[in-house]
Design brief:
Elements: E1 9-14, E2 19-24, H1 32-40, E3 47-52, H2 58-66, E4 70-76, H3 79-91, E5 96-100, H4 106-109, E6 115-120, H5 135-141, H6 148-158, E7 159-170, H7 174-183, E8 186-195, E9 204-211, E10 219-220, E11 224-225, H8 237-244
Parallel strand pairs: 3-4, 3-6, 4-5, 6-7, 8-10, 8-11
Antiparallel strand pairs: 1-2, 7-9, 8-9
Helix pairs in contact: 1-2
């Protein structure tokens, strides 16, 4: 790893030690969003999969537990995160072709129609002027260096015909996202809404789109409830199960 002081990093065992990964103590740290997106990915054949905005690599590490027949690729713009992800793939013995680069420059980085699957947990907050502890976290969470649309456009460019795009985003950006997807011919085929508790409105959604598919036939899955109640913040059985044994 290009020398990030070890004291800035901590090594976290995850999924009962099935994977381990370095994260900065201060900076961008993955959240349950990445885990729920990886769990939502649904693949039944071999192929090439790319994670746009790889961060520290959590999504690819999780997917590698479930899918043994995929070729993994990643693209990350922030040098520190890129270096940490490289190290995380190395210590978990996962082969990933990871590039340092910008989704907006996708045409200079990859050939068109190369991938069967694209996964993205993009920065999904619009620019608000909100203060973040670090610039790294801001770039990861707020549309600073790329918008959701830039991620969708990159996904569309990279995917083969009928390739699948999986993404998580905020529920208050649902219509905007679907509208952009349809314009780009990334046709939404499966949606799942995430709710903090059973009585609260949805905060996030998971979406699967298929490039150049026909409209209609979409599946709205049962809601994904995070916590048993808003006070205790104890995860529901479904989320606990995902966290305990990521394998299917
Ligand atoms: C919400 S984080 C997700 C990181 C990781 N996939 C995860 O789930 O923990 C968004 C990631 O996108 C990266 N990113 C932001 N703008 C980008 C751009 N223009 N090109 C490539 N990656 C970008 C950020 O640096 C960050 O790592």
């Amino acid at each position: 790893m290009q020398k990030l002081q070890d004291k800035e990093l901590e090594l976290i065992p995850f999924i009962r030690g099935a994977i381990k990964l370095y994260q900065k103590k201060k900076g961008y740290r993955f959240s349950i969003d990445s885990v729920l997106l990886a769990d939502f990915v649904n693949i039944r054949k071999k192929g090439k999969l790319i994670d746009l905005g790889t961060g520290t690599g959590i999504i690819l590490l999780l997917l590698s537990l479930r899918y043994k027949n995929l070729e993994f690729y990643g693209l990350e713009i922030q040098k520190d995160l890129y270096n940490i992800a490289k190290e995380n793939f190395k210590i978990n013995k996962l082969e990933v072709d990871l590039k340092l680069g910008d989704v907006k420059e996708i045409k200079n980085l990859y050939k068109e129609n190369l991938f069967d699957f694209v996964v993205a947990n993009p920065p999904f907050h619009k620019k608000t002027g909100k203060k973040y502890t670090t610039e790294e976290e801001k770039i990861a969470k707020e549309e600073t260096l790329a918008t959701v649309e830039d991620f969708l456009k990159a996904g569309k460019y990279l995917l083969k015909d009928r390739g699948k795009f999986f993404m998580i985003n905020k529920s208050d950006r649902l219509i905007e996202t679907i509208h952009k997807c349809v314009i780009l011919k990334l046709i939404p085929k499966r949606l799942r809404f995430i709710h903090p508790t059973v009585n609260e409105k949805s905060t996030h959604f998971l979406i699967e789109c298929v490039k150049n598919a026909k409209l209609s036939g979409e599946i709205i899955e049962k809601p994904l409830i995070l916590y048993k109640d808003s006070k205790s913040k104890i995860y529901t059985q479904e989320v606990e199960k995902i966290l305990n044994e990521f394998r299917r």
